[in-house]
Design a protein that fits this description.
Length: 182
């Protein structure tokens, strides 16, 4: 399935306009909260955010009033019709059946088992960021590295994810080794 944006927005332009206007308020409120957080938490990342001008991906509101991300050039959407459900299912599966990579072994077969408290979790990709808080709430790995190579996708998460809450939750769980990079 291609997951084109035309399948995710309302056919009635007036209804979609209203959805977009309501979403804009919520998206901008979260963006401002996150900008304030990163301004105090990591000034270098804040400066990258403020000076970034890419426009490969953007957040939009679906006809079901869910947030999703679209690649602008192709019109392809990153998530299904229900991003929250999709992400929830992926987090549950990861926590119960995570692939384990051992750097000392060259085997291509990775055993799977539940995430343990001494695990190091490498999270490559942020997208909407919906998976981060549930993951931190469910497991307490010794290290969690969050990495997003595409700055547009990281910035998309600033509209939909409360980064201060992610860090507060991690700190409350005595989880201080969290790194973000972009």
């Amino acid at each position: 399935m291609l997951n084109l944006i035309s399948d995710f927005i309302d056919d009635n332009n007036d209804i979609q306009f209203i959805n977009d206007q309501q979403a804009a308020i919520q998206l901008n409120r979260m963006l401002q909260r996150n900008l304030l957080f990163f301004q105090h938490f990591d000034i270098n990342l804040y400066q990258k955010i403020k000076t970034h001008h890419g426009q490969r991906y953007t957040v939009f509101s679906t006809k079901n009033q869910k947030f999703n991300i679209v690649e602008i050039a192709s019109g392809r959407v990153l998530y299904s019709q229900d991003p929250e459900r999709e992400v929830h299912d992926e987090v549950v599966e990861l926590c119960h059946c995570a692939p384990h990579v051992y750097l000392a072994q060259s085997s291509q077969l990775f055993p799977k088992s539940p995430v343990t408290d001494n695990a190091v979790i490498l999270c490559f990709g942020i997208g909407l960021g919906l998976h981060l808080l549930p993951l931190i709430k469910q497991v307490t790995p010794s290290v969690l590295v969050i990495y997003e190579a595409e700055m547009d996708l990281f910035i998309s998460s600033l509209y939909t994810t409360d980064w201060a809450m992610i860090y507060e939750t991690a700190a409350a769980k005595k989880h201080t080794d969290i790194f973000t990079a972009s």
